Each structure stands twice: as C-alpha cells, then as structure tokens.
Amino acid sequence: MHVVEISRFGQPDVLTSVEVSDPTPAPGHVLVTVAAAGINRADILQRRGHYPPPPGAPSWPGLEVSGVVEALGEGVKGWKVGDRVAALIDGGGYAELVTVPAEQLLPVPDSVDLVDAAGLPEAVCTAWSNLVDVARLSAGEHVLVHGGSGGVGTVAIQVARALGAHVLVTAGSEERVARCMELGAAGGFVYRRPEGESFADALPDLVREATGGHGADVVLDVVGGAYLGANVASLATGGRLVVIGMQKGQRGELDLGTLLTRRASVTGTTLRSRPAEEKARIVAAVREHAWPWLADGRLRPVVHARLPLAEAARGHELLDSGEVVGKVLLVP
C-alpha cells in the first residue's frame, strides 16, 4: 500500500510517498480501507521532529481517518466488513489502509459524507474530553475557545453549543469570527492587532464586556504560554483554564494572586499519548453523547479542502499558512 512518510525532519517537502506492506489486524483490531485522513497540528509537530509517535504506532503521521471496514481481527464484536467508520488512531493515517483498535471506531451515519467524516474523530474526542471531562462545562456557562476557526475550534464551538453553553472565540480575522458565529458562537475577537498593540493585554476586558462582567467559566486554549496570564485574568470565579496546545510558547507568567482570588484552576492535557483504555473510554462517551448530534445537525464536519494523499505536503503548507477554516483532508 502507499503511505506518506516523513523522510527527514523539516519543511512540508520532507513528506514523501512510499510503498509498504499491507497491515493485518491483530486481535481486537479492525482493518480499515481509508476514505480520507485528517491533518492535525500534531502531524506538523511530528514532521518537524517535536512529536514522535507513541511506541507501536507507524512512523508516518495521521491521527484520524474515515473509511470502510475491510477485515476483523480475532475477538472483534459489534463490527462487520463493509461498515462505514471513523477512527481515532495513534498514528499512520496517511495511508491506504490502517489498523485500529475496535474500541476506537465510530460509526458514520448515512447522513454524513464518508470522506468528510475523517475531520471529526480527533476534534470531537479532544473537545469532549476537555470541555466535559476536564472542564465540567454545563449549560448556561460562558466558554472562550481560542483558535475558533481551526480544526478543534470549529468542533468545540458546536459541542459547547449543544451542551447549552454561551461561546466566544478568538480568530485571525473578522471573516473567520463570522464563520465561527455561523457554527453557533455568540461573538469573538480578532487576535491580529496593529503593531504595538497587545491582544493578550486587551483580552480580559474584552471577555468581561462580552459576558456582562462575568468572565469565562471555561477557556479552551491552543495558544499556550503567550496567553497564560491573560487567560487566567479572563476567568470568572471558579473558572477553569484547559491548555491543549502551545502554538505560541511553552512558558508563560502566572499571577497566583489572581488564580487564588478567582478560585480558578489550570489544567494541561494531551490526547495522543493517553493509554488505549483511556482513549476507548473517551470514544465510548463521544459515541453515546456527542455522536447522535450528527443526526440532528447540531454537529457537522467543517472541511476547508480535500487533497490527494500524494499532496500531503500541500496540505501541511495550507495548515501552516493559518488560513484554514476547519480541516484539511487527504484522500487516497
């Protein structure tokens, strides 16, 4: 089968199509013929040499796919050959075939395009596990989603709205804020400012004004160090900051006095490095609680572009450009 391998660490042109042996499903695993693979920030970090795949995962990137069940490993129940599925995987999605633990599969309803479904597993599992499991987001609360027009952000908006929360976003332009509002956000803030103006300094006042002085009960942050202080200052009393990315730095300054006064918390999480049993629990919760929203329209994939698998480098360039709304998909 053809896969897209990282020939060396570096720029997108290091992504190269190669041929490898077809995989076979181990006990408890399912072989899936890939309809599409989603590109994620983790893939870019892996390409640059900053995010190695976990032990046992293929060396080529790709954390989510959609496709059709091709074969079942020993002991697999509840799935059959020909089923339309989406899958959360540890790596190896940039390929024509993947093997997936059966517990990390999700059924793709007929109402959802099979290719577009590849843009859902990583984002929905990330949004659900962080907004619900970690942040305990509930109806009526205010949530601020940084990078609202990104792959995780577009899904997090929909998940938060389906839970009954009020959503604010940050995005790179008014047009992108408007796209977020089409997905259910109540409003948002453009983080690109004229030279000399600090968006981080302005953020707490913007959030308080937009929430009637209340502040954000939950902040879902992909930015990292550069926004740490501003995020904490934006929290309501009892607020929860959940950091899931470090796009602008691993280190930041934290005012402990503000944290204590607000009785707030700061949590950092990742998804890829979690043990298989934790991923299985997250996928099961998503299937039970969030996946039904696909049927009634409260949740849908947001796809910026579909590209041939062999053009993975162009897909990474698109994501690197910062102009993508939603997901870029690779189609074998």
Structural account:
The protein is of the alpha/beta class. The protein folds into two domains: 2-120 and 274-331, Medium-chain alcohol dehydrogenases, catalytic domain (Quinone Oxidoreductase, Chain A, domain 1, Alpha-Beta Complex); 123-268, Rossmann fold (3-Layer(aba) Sandwich), CATH 3.40.50. Helix content is 29%, strand content 26%. The chain is built from ten helices and 15 strands. It has helices at 41-47, 121-134, 151-162, 174-182, 199-210, 228-234, 256-262, 276-290, 293-296, 312-321; strands at residues 2-6, 15-19, 29-38, 64-72, 84-88, 97-101, 105-107, 142-145, 166-171, 187-190, 216-221, 235-243, 265-268, 303-308, 327-331. Strand 8, helix 3 (151-162) and strand 9 (166-171) form a beta-alpha-beta unit. Helix 5 runs parallel beside helix 6 (228-234). The longest helix is centred in the C-terminal third of the chain and has 15 residues, at 276-290. Pfam families: ADH_N, ADH_zinc_N. This is NAD(P)H-quinone oxidoreductase. Residues 10-330 form the Enoyl reductase (ER) domain. One of its GO terms (molecular function) is oxidoreductase activity, acting on NAD(P)H. Keywords: NADP, Oxidoreductase.
Brief account:
The chain is an alpha/beta fold and 332 residues long.
Here the CATH topology of the largest domain equals Quinone Oxidoreductase, Chain A, domain 1
- Runs in which pLDDT lies below 50 for 5 or more consecutive residues are none
**What's the mean pLDDT score?**
96
Shape type: globular
In CATH, the architecture of the largest domain is Alpha-Beta Complex
Radius of gyration: 20 Å
- Please describe the biggest sheet, giving its number of strands, its sense, and whether it closes into a barrel: 7 strands, mixed
Keywords: NADP, Oxidoreductase
InterPro entries: ADH-like_C, ADH-like_N, ER, GroES-like_sf, NAD(P)-bd_dom_sf, Quin_OxRdtase/zeta-crystal_CS, Quinone_OxRdtase_PIG3
Protein name: NAD(P)H-quinone oxidoreductase
Domain Enoyl reductase (ER): 10-330
